[in-house]
Amino acid sequence: GKVEFADGRYGFVSCKYYTKPKYSGLKYCLLATKNAGLTWDTISFTPAGRFFYMAFADSLRGIAFHIDECYKKSMVKTADGGRTWSMMDELQGHVGNPHLMPSGFGCLGDGDELFFTSDYGETWDSIPSPLRYIRAIQFLNREIGFISDGYEDVGILKTVDGGISWDTISK
Fold first, then answer.
1. Which residues 6+ apart lie within 8 Å of 136 measured at CB?
2. Are the CB atoms for 114 and 100 separated by under 8 Å?
3. To the nearest 10°, the Cα dihedral for 141, 143, 146, 149?
4. Is the pTM of this model over 0.90?
5. C-alpha to C-alpha distance for 156 and 132, rounded to whole angstroms
6. Most CB within 10 Å of its CB: which of 41, 57, 123, 138?
7. What is the DSSP code (8-state) at residue 44?
8. 51 sits in which H/E element
9. How far apart, in whole angstroms, are the C-alpha atoms of residue 161 and residue 46?
10. Cβ neighbours of residue 14 under 8 Å, at least 6 residues apart?
11. CB–CB of 7/58 below 8 Å?
């Protein structure tokens, strides 16, 4: 599963579990907390399927990579705290973790491209990625960001100009 906190109080967890008896079926769920993880509530959501990566700007607005029951990959968004999700785009290739900030700025890596939004995922612009596979992405603001492919040979790359250029800072 994936744990994502929008702030110090609101958080979400995607999870899977097996139904009884004797683990007869695999089910997926989405949990949410409003009190920094003291209690968690199950959220009923549509469409059915599994969330692999997700990012929330606040307690209501988020984006996620979703695989439905027929294994169709899509990028989805929510504006109601995860209760309903609408499709945004078909995905091709491997997709890295998205990142979404309270200002509406967000980014994600998909194959050999980096995508940026300034309106909570309504629209996206893309630029070439310096990596073929992006495992992690995090921006501190619109200019300063970090990406990694998760392998030791590339390490961590940093940009100070919104992704125009990248420097290796760690291997």
1. 96, 97, 146, 147, 148, 150
2. no
3. 120
4. no
5. 13
6. 57
7. P
8. strand 50-56
9. 38
10. 1, 2, 28, 29, 30, 50, 51, 52, 54, 64
11. yes
